[in-house]
Amino acid sequence: MTHRPAPTDTAIHPLIAERWSPRAYADRPVAHAQVIAMLEAARWAPSAFNAQPWRFVVFEKTEDPAAFERAFGTLIPFNQSWNANAQVLIAVLADTLTSKGTANPGASYDAGAAAMALLLQAHAQGLAAHAMSGLDAGAFRKIFAIPERYDVLSMISVAHHGDAQSLPAALAEREQAPRARLPLDQIAHFGAWPESA
User: Fold this and answer.
1) φ, ψ of residue 151 in degrees (nearest 5)
2) What is the rounded CA–CA span in Å between residue 122 and residue 8?
3) Domains in the chain and their CATH numbers?
4) Beta bridge partners of 32
């Protein structure tokens, strides 16, 4: 496993600093119990009014190869190119309606929080997990008969860590490149919105 801690300006918890989105996957099964633990972590995410609008459709290569392949087929070609060894695909959905049938404007935000909990649990278990927006949501909806009230937000692929050198050269380079984020003063504003922003 490549160790790539975030070069933070202030110390943060190692679970957060060390989580990243690898593409080099090993071709060996992920235990079903580990998948359940990731989903359990997601289940305990916070949500407005405790609405819990997240939903997950889970595809395990060893449990149902045909369903896995159908889900895999909804990824854009670039994501298919590096996910050949993915063992689990988890579609992240958001229920856009409340229990009363009214619009839930925070559904995607809350589903994102649950997805992050899932990603952190994967990392805590020593697994590689990568969230992708690059999928054909319409095709996924049609293939798996997803009702209209659910937005298809993303797909998370999960596997054991693999060798970066097994990737195409450009991706192998990205796999080992320094991690970077916008500086804090560009994303956080104290007391007011700056005129320059």
Assistant:
1) -85, 135
2) 21
3) 32-159 (3.40.109.10)
4) none
